[in-house]
Amino acid sequence: MAEVKKVEVRAKKSRVNKNQGQIPRKNSGLYIYEPALKQYVIVEKDPKSHIQDIDKRKFLVPNDISVAQFMWIIRKRIQLPSEKAIFLFVGKVLPQSSASMGQVYEEHKDEDGFLYIAYSGENTFGH
Length: 127
Description:
alpha+beta, four-stranded mixed β-sheet, two-stranded antiparallel sheet, globular, autophagy, Atg8-like
């Protein structure tokens, strides 16, 4: 899992409000976290599937979203009705929907640094 870097931020002094006197804020050490790392994902339709084509194939996906959230993004891109099923495959593996995209990327990334995901309207690799 990727490391999260802490960045120290100092609070600014408040401006003078016309209705109130000047209230300076003390500089307190606040910490915010940098945005989650992202990886490149290439989405392709399985050639055997009879589902709609996707309008966008390349995605820059944050590490911390789940496979289920990414599947929802794909469903919206292909405008798939809620009563129809969709399956995402990484190689010939159906990833867990609760797994993060960062985990899937680390386990299945290609030599070129991309994660290739195929989608299908039916479970083509199952029995």
